[in-house]
Amino acid sequence: MTLKRTNWLSGPSFAFSKSQLKTMALRRNGGIPTVPGTVTLKKDSQNVIGISIGGGAQHCPCLYIVQVFDNTPASLDGTIAAGDEITGVNGKSVKGKTKVEVAKMIQNVKGEVTIHYNKLQADPKQGKSLDIVLKKVKHRLVENLSSGTADALGLSRAILCNDGLVKRLEELEKTGEFYRGMMEHTKRLLRSFFELSQTHRAFGDVFSVIGVREPQPAASEAFVKFADAHRSIEKFGIGLLKTIKPMLSDLNTYLNKAIPDTKLTIRKYLDVKFEYLSYCLKVKEMDDEEYSSIALGEPLYRVGTGNYEYRLILRCRQEARARFAKMRKDVLEKIELLDQKHVHDIVFQLQRFVSAMSKYNDQCYEVLKEADIFPIEVGWHFREISRPRQGRFVVGD
Predict the structure, then answer these.
(1) Which of 106, 113, 200, 207 satisfies CB 3.0 to 4.6 Å to 227 for a cystine?
(2) Domain segments of the chain: what residues?
């Protein structure tokens, strides 16, 4: 800064550099720079561009955008955002006007309207204060409380707290338990079938030994045939196990990959939702503070200096809402895909199980039908067993 004295009567005058003037302006703006710009918006069929305006005379020196509504010309254009200052409409300055007067200026323009603005170059990190973090914690706690409990504790519940997606998270937990029970039941079933197959194999070995040692040709052939039937049943059982075993892999993929991934997405969505609700609550608190100060005749300093802190929170709320809408869309798509996979997967797995069991039973029936060997004629050889005096057994014909 340089001092330049003109004369003793007029006093000292100060000359500031551009960087010093910019620094002083940033201090007045709360450290948030602005960039001027112009945008032309074409009105919709309802003669609106889709913004709400705040500030203005007589308490605030500037007018600013409070909210940009979804699916409106301003939202689809994307140039202006919440927190931006409006400096003119169709080349006319709005300085010193009220928000109602500016709204009428925009409304009276037909077709296209040109908005002159100062873009707020806000960093969302500046608005994420400790107060916002504590509000997120509060919303997270209230989310898990019933309405009666929250009212008894004096905790306000936001409308979005009664979110259907939270119930879907509970349904996913139940679906996970269902799949976990199905996996355990399938494992026990496979283990039982394996043991049954080993029993059939043991039967086949025993009957095979009996058939080999049987002197009667017809009986020997019958026992061998019966042994082969049991060995075939054992092979059918192993084939059944190989068919049903992939069920475990598919169920495990759904249980340990698809469901956890969707639950993680829902939790991320909830975190974004709580942040958005926190900014909404912060905006309401600042609005109430402003209304109270005006009612008392004591305007707030932040309002009289451009309300930059409030505009920063408005920008943060808009960006949090955009993230919230995007995450909600992603979650709904994932849940829909998961539901479709659940329905298709359950039908496919049950069809695989039923067809495998049906095939196994048909194969066993065909084998046992061919092995109808009863009655069996077995030759009994009677032998005389004598015990001599020496204590030895002697077997003779």
Answers:
(1) 207
(2) 34-120, 161-370
AA letter at 180? R
User: 3-state secondary structure string, the chain?
Assistant: CEEEEEECCCEEEEECCHHHHHHHHHHHCCCCCEEEEEEEEECCCCCCCCEEEEEECCCCCCEEEEEECCCCHHHHHCCCCCCCEEEEECCEECCCCEHHHHHHHHHHCCCEEEEEEEEECCCHHHHCCHHHHHHHHHHHHHHCCCHHHHHHCCCCCCHHHCCHHHHHHHHHHHHHHHHHHHHHHHHHHHHHHHHHHHHHHHHHHHHHHHHHHCCCHHHHHHHHHHHHHHHHHHHHHHHHHHHHHHHHHHHHHHHHHHHHHHHHHHHHHHHHHHHHHHHHHHHHHHHHHHHHHHHCCCCCHHHHCCCHHHHHHHHHHHHHHHHHHHHHHHHHHHHHHHHHHHHHHHHHHHHHHHHHHHHHHHHHHHHHHHCCCCCCCCCCCCCEEECCCCCCCEEEC
- Cα radius of gyration rounded to whole Å, the chain: 42
Separation between Cα atoms, residue 248 and residue 254, nearest integer Å: 10
pLDDT one-digit tens code per residue, 24-60: 444 445 557 888 999 999 988 888 899 999 988 888 8
Q: What are the structure tokens assigned to 181, written together?
A: 């029970």
pLDDT value at residue 215? 77
The 10s digit of each residue's pLDDT in 215-261 is 777 778 888 888 888 899 999 999 989 888 888 888 888 888 888 88
| Amino acid residing at 40 | T
Which fold would CATH assign to domain 34-120?
Answer: Pdz3 Domain (2.30.42)
Give the pLDDT of residue 31. 58
pLDDT of 396 above 50: no
Residue 38 pairs in a beta bridge with 116
Mean pLDDT of 98-108: 91
- Range 178-186 average pLDDT: 88
CATH topology of domain 161-370: Substrate Binding Domain Of Dnak; Chain:A; Domain 2 (1.20.1270)
Q: CA 171 from chain center: how many Å?
A: 13
